[in-house]
Amino acid sequence: MYRISQRFHCPQTYWNGIMSFRGPENTPYTGGYYHGKLVFPKDFPFKPPRIFMITPNGRFKVNTRLCLSISDFHPDTWNPAWSVSTILTGLLSFMVETSPTLGSIDTSEFQKRQLALRSGPFNLKDKIFCELFPDTVEEIHGKMKERGETREGEQTATQNNVNSQGGVAGATRDGQNGLISSTLVNICVIIGFAAFAYTVKCVLKAVDNS
Region Disordered: what ranges (predicted)? Predict the structure, then answer.
């Protein structure tokens, strides 16, 4: 799912299209909210737009012109029949690929998933994003609330687990301390018997000598 809003700037030369889209399902970007910009030349659709990503995503650099077959880096492969939706569909396709290109970066799937989780809060700091996509902003707030409740539950479970482990560790230490005390008592008893036996032996020897 994607949304796009036109932000006009210097119409004599080009105009900006601000885009917002969800990360593709069953990918490291699932659950992410991504924000980017299309800069169209005045003779669009006969020439391709510049493409920029604004939200950190782990696949493309932010605020950097992307070298894609649907961008202004490759006017020779551009088709004037392509629409804005075609561009966004192509961008999503390039996003899930791993082939390097100018403006791409190499990150692990774990890093991409972490950035997807942080993408919503990141976009909420962007005034233009919040102004143009109020429905998405509301959706992000809802997701953040859900995740907040989940994190609270996870923290409670983690604390309970720690407390449980602490109780087991305490019981183990108590058992070990009891074992040590019992061993020391036994040693003292043995030493006492040995001393008593030695004393008796000395007394008997003295009696025999007399």
Answer: 145-169
Lowest mean pLDDT, pick from 4-8, 25-29, 72-76, 106-110:
4-8
The DSSP line for 7-76 is E---TTTEEEEEEEEEPPTTSTTTT-EEEEEEEEETTTTSSPPEEEE-S--SSB-BTS----TTSTT-GG
How far is Cα 191 from Cα 52, in angstroms, rounded to an integer?
84
Question: Are 140 and 124 in contact, with CB atoms under 8 Å apart?
Answer: yes
Chain centroid to CA 167: 31
For residue 39 the two structure tokens come to: 């800069």
pLDDT in tens, 6-34: 443 444 556 778 888 999 999 999 999 99
Residue 77 DSSP label: G
130 is catalytic: no
Provide φ and ψ at 126, rounded to 5°.
Answer: -95, 115
Catalytic residue from among 10, 67, 188, 202: 67
Tokens of 27: 């990918």
Under DSSP, is residue 82 helix (H, G, I), strand (E, B) or coil? coil
Q: What is the largest CA-CA distance in the chain?
A: 132
Distance CA 113, CA 119 (A): 10
The span from the CA of 178 to the CA of 5, in Å, is 73
- Which residue in this structure is represented by tokens 């030349």? 41
- Would you give the DSSP letter of residue 133? -
